Amino acid sequence: MDPRIKGYLERNREWAEREDYVPPIRFVDMQRKGRERVDGTVIVVACTDPRVTPEEFLGMDSSSKATVVRTAGGRVHAAMSTLLVLSAVGNAGKKGVIMVVHHTDCGLQTADEEAIRGVLRESVEGGGEGRWKDREVERVLESVRFGAFVNPDESVKEDVGILKDSPFFKGMQILGFVQDTETGLLKEVIGVE
Q: What is the DSSP string of 50-104?
């Protein structure tokens, strides 16, 4: 086993065995409490980059947790199935906040859609199973939108627009921010109208 995984497992055991460990509330109880909240729940959509962890840069603790959904670049098209499930088990998009957070120096700023497809195409060349495999690779690669972008302000505006245009989140505030990785600070790109 990879030594990093062994380390994670050991730290997990230590965490779970602490005297102050308390199991989380049951899902149905959490769901009920979320539905009962007048202001709804908070969902943060952010990048998978380990340098920008919402729980850290938003200062979340046990009294201020939010649901965090992480995708490459923090792009909402990749998060949509999760957001829809959260809406279905939550309050059906009738209240709450979705906070879209992208960041500077993001890996998705370093390539375009076709360059990403090219790298992936090359990664499977020679290991295919004939023409069927090649067709399947192309089908998968052409069906995926990776979300490459140049300007994080513009990508946030695009993603907030997608959510605001969706009929599933009409009762929610949709806010957009860019985190400057040099300073750590969030800049509001799209706020409450």
A: TT--HHHHTT--TTS--EEEEEGGG-HHHHHHHHHHHHHHTTTTSS-EEEEEEES
